[in-house]
Amino acid sequence: MKLPNGERAIIADSKLSEYLLSSTHTEGKDKAVVFFSRGFSLERLDELRVALKNLARGNEVTKSKDTIHGMKYVVEGLLETPDRRGIFLRTVWMVDRGG
Length: 99
Known about the structure:
By secondary structure, the protein is α+β, with helices and mostly antiparallel strands.
């Protein structure tokens, strides 16, 4: 199964700049090291946003779970990177209740 409404996925700038590409975020800093090493940057947030959305739309859901906030979906696949080496990545997507 594909991510429901994957074409409408939203990734806030803050999720990218203050988490995935933050060298100071407690949980995100290790992710940032990997993303920076593959050519992503804070100056070009849309590159990471587009790559994440492409991964979500192009791969199958590997796990789903109903939570109090909505359905959580896990999608794994190869993330296209600016350096063209790619990263095999597990992403988590939330479809909020009522939205």
